Amino acid sequence: MSKFDKLEELQNLLKSDPNNFQVRREFAVLLLDCNYPEEALQHFLYLSKIFNNDSGIFYNIGITYEKLKELNKAENAYRKAIELSPEKPDAYYNLGLVYIDLKMYEQAVECFEKVLEYDSNDSNAYFSIGLCYFKEKKYDGALYYFKRTIELNDEDIYAHFYMGNILREKDDVVGATEEFYRVLEISPDYSWAYFNLASIAYDLEDYDSAVENLEKTLQYNPKDIEAYKIYAKILTKLGDYKNALSVMERAKENCEENGDLCYIQAQINKLLNQNDEYVENMNNAIKNYLTLSFPSTLAKKELEEYTKNR
User: Fold this and answer.
1) Nearest-CA neighbor of 234 among 210, 266, 216, 204?
2) Measured between alpha carbons, how far is 183 from 39 in angstroms, rounded to an integer?
3) What is the pLDDT of residues 70-122, one digit of tens each?
């Protein structure tokens, strides 16, 4: 029986017996599982008024509010679940995730530490503490917890990925590279690992390796604007203007109009003496000033000087 057939069956049972609370709970859980959070919430809230000491109901209410992006209500629901059953670590863990979303990192760490009191080998809790420290740029603490995560679960790609970022931040290029390659061993289609390898190679002026990894990046994520930007810069440095322009055309096909992309394309147009195209792309860059990585006034000044000198 499919999930949707099961939903129909449970709904019919509820119609014939609205006071069958076990069926209502099962129906609400399945609604949530099938991505109908609004409908699920109605049933969970109804049940919470009848079974106001049932921590599982409040836990599910928390999950539902998370799906609905109502984080403050999710926080209150998880706190109620913890109040009713403080010995169950799941609500602590989910509450910690809510605090991460709310950027309340100290409170999040407290929740994950509580999880570790119940299970000192919970790799997800170690990872989540590491993530909190990473977001606060407390890299030494983050590195410790990501290493602990990997000791417990070497297949955790995100722990390896964040470790790679931290090691790169610490100028440990070899260590960072190893971590990004480990990510790709686990998940060969993880585009951000290819991008980071490309970025490292670009910094080292190893352009062949950079281009190879940028192509992989764009294979798995054709909307990666930063990859197109680096790719075009490399080809421009190498004097391969026509292929640089081709990369920018690919970016236009796959991404929304972007100020930086338009500006880079304009610079390539200028190198190719494509004057009309240069002016058009500079105007587009200025128009999309919100996605320019520098003040649009500088782009306007550049365009005015170019136009004046023609």
Assistant:
1) 210
2) 38
3) 999 999 999 999 999 999 999 999 999 999 999 999 999 999 999 999 999 99
> Model-level pTM?
0.88
- In whole angstroms, how far apart are CA 2 and each of 9, 16, 30, 209, 286? 11, 22, 11, 48, 53
For residue 165, the 8-state DSSP code is H
Interval 110-167: pLDDT, tens: 999 999 999 999 999 999 999 999 999 999 999 999 999 999 999 999 999 999 999 9
Residue 285 has φ and ψ, to the nearest 5°, of: -60, -45
Backbone angles phi, psi at 300, to 5 degrees: -60, -45
Buried b (16+ CB within 10 A) or exposed e, 258-273: bbbbbbbbbbbbbeee
Determine the angle formed by the axes of helices 207-220 and 225-237, rounding to 10 degrees: 150
- Spatial separation of the C-alpha atoms in residues 50 and 34, rounded to whole Å: 25
